[in-house]
């Protein structure tokens, strides 16, 4: 049994807000749900499965199900940090394939610019050994970048090309938080945050959210939308594993990616568009290597000279501007990765960045702390002709 | 620049001997009587093989920098976050102290320099397993 063609993404919605001082987080969830369902041509009463992560307000998925007014027969609040929503697409397909639901709604929302957000989870067994160290995301991903530079000669200028490419795309997105095109020089001359990562190597922080509607193939055919099928999915986790064989240059995507490609029966060379989780520039570079778009250590050369820019480069990525320039709602960029992949496959991306004949896309992400313990999720999506 | 408020570690039955060791200037890891591998942070059950036959080992407290990143912004900056690979094998997530943080580099030899909890920390706790460049 496989997930190949087991389910379709029928609805996708990215909330246009990037700053929401006068809204509530449940309200944002509800607006995203309404947007994705309208996009699919479905309504709340059609939903029989609900997915959120543990950041959703209230008790697991139960509070939001009641708040939204849903009646469901399947729930899932799997947590994998920012890439959760990529994983939720796969888990929704599993549930649909098993007959546990037929219309799954996935929502994310948060307001980290407008309210204090609890990010530290008390009681983790590593807490006493790591919390006092000050391992923020900046230093965690910074250590990965430093080691990658040490082993492979990767440069700050090469990492900067990832931000430059994202900014070229963001200029065409009217909702992007940072719509201005930047240069390699501007990135490497921006203030150092955590060596070797500069301010412009980091993603934006935004209020906002998004939602997805995953349906059975039978229901997808009845909707007046292009049919976007899931071809394959993979997930994995990776940690310091007791400190033996530490390798900060390889992410869990080295396992989730090949699993997804194997299930889909396609290779990286077949991919027309890639949504790559971009919490930092180094996050993108490592995933490109780990998914097999280039060899380990060759990521710096691969991303240089605009190779990720739509219309110019060989692998158009994050054509909405990504987390680096557009949106990273609630510190969680997974859902916007899926949403832009769906736009590309439907031909609904901004015209200046739309990939011609885009029929095969990947969305991949990292959740948690790349330099410590993290998860990865990868999905391959195809537009049915 | 205000000092960084460090949450004091809370020892528990699985880790008390580790924190006691630091008070004596020793960094202890766990090793396994079944697979003979060491691990850090310490657990009751070996994460490599699942054996409960784990025991404490006093390390030499020396190793080399696997990777590091100096935090340049925010409370207590600058400070260095690093993985140090101990001569006994396991890598340890830690802070590096040095007169010149910019002189620290991957591959450099370092030694344990236990740091007492101080008045700026959140709560009372044991000494912390911080490392310093050898020669500093
Ligand atoms: Zn063992």
UniProtKB/TrEMBL annotation, chain A:
Residues 247-382 form the Thiolase C-terminal domain. Keywords: Transferase. The keyword Amino-acid biosynthesis does not apply. CDD domains: SCP-x_thiolase. The keyword Mitochondrion does not apply. One of its GO terms (molecular function) is acetyl-CoA C-acyltransferase activity. PANTHER family: ACETYL-COA C-ACETYLTRANSFERASE (PTHR42870), NON-SPECIFIC LIPID-TRANSFER PROTEIN-LIKE 2 (PTHR42870:SF1). NCBIfam families: PRK08142.1. This is Acetyl-CoA C-acetyltransferase.
From TrEMBL, chain B:
Gene3D superfamilies: 6.10.30.10. Residues 58-112 form the ChsH2 C-terminal OB-fold domain. Residues 19-53 form the ChsH2 rubredoxin-like zinc ribbon domain. InterPro entries: ChsH2_C, ChsH2_Znr, NA-bd_OB-fold, Thioester_dehydratase-like. Pfam families: OB_ChsH2_C, zf-ChsH2. SUPFAM superfamilies: Nucleic acid-binding proteins (SSF50249). This is DNA-binding protein.
